[in-house]
Amino acid sequence: MKLYEFAPTRSIRARWALQELDVPFEAVEIKLLEGAGQTPEYLALNPTGKVPTLVDGDFVVTESVAIVVYLAEKYPEKALLPTDIKQRTQLNRWMLFIVTELEQPMWRIARNSFLYPEEQRQPTDIEIAKGEFRTMAAVLEKHMQGREFLVGDKVSVGDFIAAYTLDWGNEVGLLDQCPTLLAYMQRMYDRPKAAMRIKDALQTVQAA
């Protein structure tokens, strides 16, 4: 099994799932800043040119949420997905909430801060996106009060999705009013097989 990754990105989610599952894998770094995502060879695996990409034999999976769900379903003995249909549906609900309501404002912030060429950036949208993130984070904050995990009474791949996204929001100071989410995120990253925090992953890139 191969994981094509770039350290500070959503690759963290896929790597985290693999580490929690104790699945041996080969890590292949895709140096996005050097254009490695746009080579014909990589685009044949992932036409978006993004990471992560998981290759399991002749089966290729892209999109970080799809990857972690695939891995959890492939190794059901590790119990990283609920088996109860109602809990599984709730998990799907919250994973979709995270990637639509929390992750999308973060992308807008990133694009208008440094990803887009300067002439294409819309600085006013940064504050709008920050407000949208805070509003939706408050919804998750309320959900997590009195809970240890996103859904049910045991960890799931949804917790890795959530923790990474919250760490992203925390990097730009958007969780200062969400003590429950901060504590939850820290618990997840304190797990022995957790992946790196975003700030640590960024340091590995800068040091290379």
Summarize the structure in words.
- The model has no long low-confidence stretch (mean pLDDT 97).
- This protein folds into 2 domains: 2-79 and 196-207, Glutaredoxin; 85-189, Glutathione S-transferase Yfyf (Class Pi), Chain A, domain 2.
- The longest helix has 31 residues, at 85-115.
- With 208 residues, it is an alpha+beta fold.
- The radius of gyration is 17 Å and the shape is globular.
- It has a 4-stranded mixed beta sheet with strand order 2-1-3-4, with helices on one face.
- It has 8 helices and 4 strands.
Question: Going across the major beta sheet, what is the strand order?
Answer: 2-1-3-4
For the terminal residues, how far apart are their CA atoms? 25 Å
Number of continuous helical runs: 8
Number of domains: 2
Computed over alpha carbons, the radius of gyration is: 17 Å
Assigned CATH architecture of the largest domain: Up-down Bundle
* Residue share in helix: 55-70%
How many β-strand stretches? 4
Give the helices and strands as they follow along the chain: EHEHEEHHHHHH
Low-confidence parts: none
Estimated share of beta-strand residues? 5-15%
Protein name: Glutathione S-transferase
Domain GST N-terminal: 1-79
Family: Belongs to the GST superfamily.
Keywords: Transferase
